[in-house]
Amino acid sequence: MTMFLTIAVIVLFFLVIFQIAKASEYVGVLKGEKETRKQANKINGFFMIAFLVLGLIGLYWCNELLFKKTLLVHPSASVQGEKVDSILWITLIITGAVFLATQILLFWFSFRYQEKENNKSYFFPHNSKLEFIWTAVPAIVLTILIIIGLRDWFYFTGDAPKNAMQVEITGKQFGWIFRYPGADGILGKKYYKEIDPATNSLGLVWKNDTTYNLKDDPATHDDIVMEQTLYLVKDKPVKFIIGSRDVIHDVGLPQFRLKMDAVPGIPTTMWLTPKFTTEEMRKITNNPNFDYEIACDQLCGNGHYSMKGIIKVVTQEEFDIWMAKQKPAYYVAFPDKDPDNKKATDSTAKQPTMAATKLLNNTVAKN
């Protein structure tokens, strides 16, 4: 019922406008076309100036109201993101100045040069010099912006520093999987046919498989696999090796001002250097619940909205303590091969033997 009522109101609104237009047309016929046109020009000229003033006021009001909700209020959380912020501000200043100049001139000219008795039109059909200027200047400015953007892009996606840590990020519907290399500093091999959502979410090659001609890769045995929460170190470069387990995703790091597609079968890379720990950013934002976010910036299915992960930026000491507590995914999948479990088992097995030896010694002593 509400929908039909809404449609009826919209139709009625357009009918009223149509009738007003027809009535104005009839009035124009009675008054004379020339007088009607003069009156319409005056009204339209006034509305042009009114729209310009109200539009500029609205622009300023929206900026005051919404700017605090943008990411630009706070500094970039990565060194590389500073370059993104820089080119963004340059672009906003240039395009903002052009927008204001053209819109003010557009509305002012419409008012200033409206039809009047003593005004005579001056036809200006062609001027090669002006056409060259208004074509060349924007082309040069845009070319410079593109060159700066490409320079920064190649910097983000180029070779990371030698001391950079490596983290593999894999997107899936609808979450994130993170992998750190173990003590050997090498990310082991994986194969999608080996994926088991319960025990091997990345398909790490942990065993020989003649079906796919795979050999157990020892480099996978110490890899740390985490889901949904990524730990990074402040001031330490990190190289991301990005991929997907199913459809195309996009690693979006809004606070770090970076993003990169996650494509099945085609690894992509980028690197960054975090500037602030999570605790420091909570003070900067004045938000005690703040956490860095990793979001999917590519529509990837019904659960796309929920594909959000957390990034914890900590000090090197805190990261080392956290990493020491993590157990390689290989040992989680095969507890019997975990050296810690073996030690515990050996210790338990020795206890009865020691007790029996003590009992035997006591018996001999009594005899």
Automatic annotation (TrEMBL):
Keywords from UniProt, A to Z, are:
Copper, Electron transport, Membrane, Metal-binding, Respiratory chain, Translocase, Transmembrane, Transmembrane helix, Transport
Q: What is its EC number?
A: 7.1.1.9
Q: Which SUPFAM superfamilies match?
A: Cupredoxins (SSF49503), Cytochrome c oxidase subunit II-like, transmembrane region (SSF81464)
Tell me the Pfam families matching this sequence. Answer: COX2, COX2_TM
List localization entries. Answer: Cell membrane; Membrane
Indicate the enzyme's highest-level EC class.
translocase
Q: Cytochrome oxidase subunit II transmembrane region profile domain location, by residue? A: 65-160
Q: Where primarily located?
A: membrane
- Mind telling me which InterPro entries this protein's record contains? CcO_II, CcO_II-like_C, Cupredoxin, Cyt_c_oxidase_su2_TM_dom, Cyt_c_oxidase_su2_TM_sf
Q: Which cofactor does it need?
A: Cu cation
Q: How does it sit in the membrane?
A: Multi-pass membrane protein
- Gene Ontology terms: biological process: ATP synthesis coupled electron transport
Q: How is the cofactor bound?
A: Binds a copper A center.
Instruction: List the catalysed reactions.
Output: 4 Fe(II)-[cytochrome c] + O2 + 8 H(+)(in) = 4 Fe(III)-[cytochrome c] + 2 H2O + 4 H(+)(out)
Q: Which GO terms describe its cellular component?
A: plasma membrane
Checking Gene3D superfamilies in the record gives: 1.10.287.90, Cupredoxins - blue copper proteins (2.60.40.420)
PROSITE patterns (alphabetical) = COX2_CUA, COX2_TM
Instruction: List residues of the Cytochrome oxidase subunit II copper A binding domain.
Output: 162-325
Annotated membrane-spanning segments are: 47-66, 87-111, 131-150
> Per its record, what are the GO molecular function terms?
copper ion binding; cytochrome-c oxidase activity
State what this protein does. Subunits I and II form the functional core of the enzyme complex. Electrons originating in cytochrome c are transferred via heme a and Cu(A) to the binuclear center formed by heme a3 and Cu(B).
Give the family per the record: Belongs to the cytochrome c oxidase subunit 2 family.
Q: Which PANTHER family match?
A: CYTOCHROME C OXIDASE SUBUNIT 2 (PTHR22888:SF9), CYTOCHROME C OXIDASE, SUBUNIT II (PTHR22888)
**What name appears for this protein in its UniProt entry?**
Cytochrome c oxidase subunit 2
